[in-house]
Amino acid sequence: MSDNRLTITDHRTGAQYEVPIVDGNIRATDLRKIKVQPDEFGMMTYDPAYLNTASCRSAITFIDGDIGILRYRGYPIEELAEKCSFLEVAWLLMRGELPTKIELECWEQRVMRHCMIHETSKKFLEGFRYNAHPMTMLISTTAALSTVYPEAKDIHDPVNRERQSVRLLAKMPTIAAYSYRHAFGLPYIYPDKTKSFTANFMHMLWSMVEPKFIDDPTIARVLDILFILHADHEQNCSTATMRQVGSSQADPYLSVAAAAAALSGPLHGGANEAVLIMLDEIGTKANVPAYIEKVKKGEVKLMGFGHRVYKNYDPRARIIKWAADEVFKITGVNHRIEVALELERIALQDEYFVGRKLYPNVDFYSGIIYQAMGFRPDLFTVLFAIPRVVGWLAQWEEMITDKEQKIARPRQVYTGYDERHFIPMEDRKPTTDLG
Ligand code: CMC
């Protein structure tokens, strides 16, 4: 008999079970044969927040959180950030291999051709209240694109899927820029397909009638690198949402909107905005020790620290720290960096953080650099969503074409009442204090 198996003894019955081990893991459904009575459902695993459950097989992104390794399709993130453009990495994630020169040129042209959004979508954006958060506008407008492209529902056609994926990738910066300008009552700027992906985004964000917006190539390149770093991160909360919603065969606009909604929370992509708010609250280096004490007492969280998977320095945070220096050479230093560096210095020496393996994550420095580049904090999570759409779509495509995947449907451990019978209104006892 193969050694690739687990032997389980159920001490309730004395029965022994052999469970095959594949790729170092067991299948949860193999545990179903473990039962006391034949008519029982069988044993499940209870895993709130999926701390130890693999829900798919994926060939896209590899993370070794103990060492601090991140690879897309096998390539180290450091090499991709240094040598590639964001659209090159988008192709890699979505197609599996790096593009040739001609493939990349065609891909760039194709994506840039799809940047415009339908005029009715623009009107939809105009309907939001003047102070609507750009991330919420992005989520709602992405969902609304489903009405513009009803053919997206045919998720079984690979050509159709690819067309919708390109549209989503291309239109996210346009929706993001329109969402941003809405708050200022500024006219929407149409995309300029002669510019690069990131330079066009900044043009749509910041162009005024006079003078015309001229992008700084270093800033555009740094934004490109930041987009590469955020493009995918295996089964995080928003990607798991994309797969979960997509598994019901909802169209990709609705699935991306759901994934973006998951991203918006402060424990996920919303952390970059929360870090800036925290740094402003701390104010100066001198206030850092007192803030660390508040964190240790459990009164607040150190935003931008900690990660479910990384128990070492997040490799993306290291690259962002380097990129911050490049940006500061042009924009001048964002004084918040001093507070952030002091927070990191003290935290990395403190037993509370060392013992729990809490290190800076991607969001710790990204807000500081974005702010130095001229982005307002309420746009930070949107800046996370624009590149992450690539990862969501690559993972969605992988899920749709995976024969093992079905509609996602977790089980539960029921803890409520056993059967009980209807009580007429006059016999019920109050359960709330009506004050
Ligand atoms: N500040 C203070 N204590 C923390 C922090 C933090 N940022 N993160 C975790 N801990 C403590 C936590 O209180 C717990 O302590 P104890 O064992 O005494 O109860 C221990 O560390 C383990 O934490 P956990 O909450 O079980 O870890 P998790 O894997 O469920 O949460 C996390 C991961 C990222 C949600 C969490 O670290 C956190 O809330 N960080 C701040 C928000 C943040 O920066 N989010 C961005 C994540 S990276 C970008 C992305 O992928 O979205």
Describe the structure.
49% of the residues lie in helices and 5% in strands. The strands form 2 sheets. The chain has a 3-stranded antiparallel β-sheet with strand order 3-4-5. A two-stranded antiparallel sheet has the order 1-2. With 435 residues, it is mainly α. The model has no long low-confidence stretch (mean pLDDT 95). The longest helix is centred in the middle third of the chain and has 25 residues, at 158-182. A hairpin with a 2-residue loop joins β4 and β5 (75-76). It folds into 3 domains: 1-45, no CATH class; 61-263 and 379-400, Citrate Synthase, domain 1, CATH 1.10.580; 271-312 and 320-373, Orthogonal Bundle (Cytochrome p450-Terp, domain 2), CATH 1.10.230. Residues 233, 236, 267-269, 271, 295, 301-308, 356, 358, 361-363 line the site of carboxymethyl coenzyme *A.
Q: Secondary-structure element sequence?
A: EEEEEHHHHHHHHHHHHHHHHH
Question: Which structural class do you get from the secondary structure elements?
Answer: mainly alpha
Q: Estimate what percentage of residues fall within beta strands.
A: 5-15%
CATH class of the largest domain: Mainly Alpha
Write the layout of secondary structure elements.
Elements (H helix, E strand, L loop, with lengths): L4 E6 L4 E6 L40 E4 L4 E4 L2 E2 H7 L2 H10 L5 H13 L5 H8 L7 H15 L9 H25 L14 H10 L10 H13 L7 H10 L5 H12 L7 H12 L5 H9 L18 H17 L4 H12 L3 H5 L6 H12 L6 H21 L35
Descriptive keywords:
435 residues, mainly alpha, Citrate Synthase, domain 1, Cytochrome p450-Terp, domain 2, two-stranded antiparallel ribbon, 5% strand, binds carboxymethyl coenzyme *A
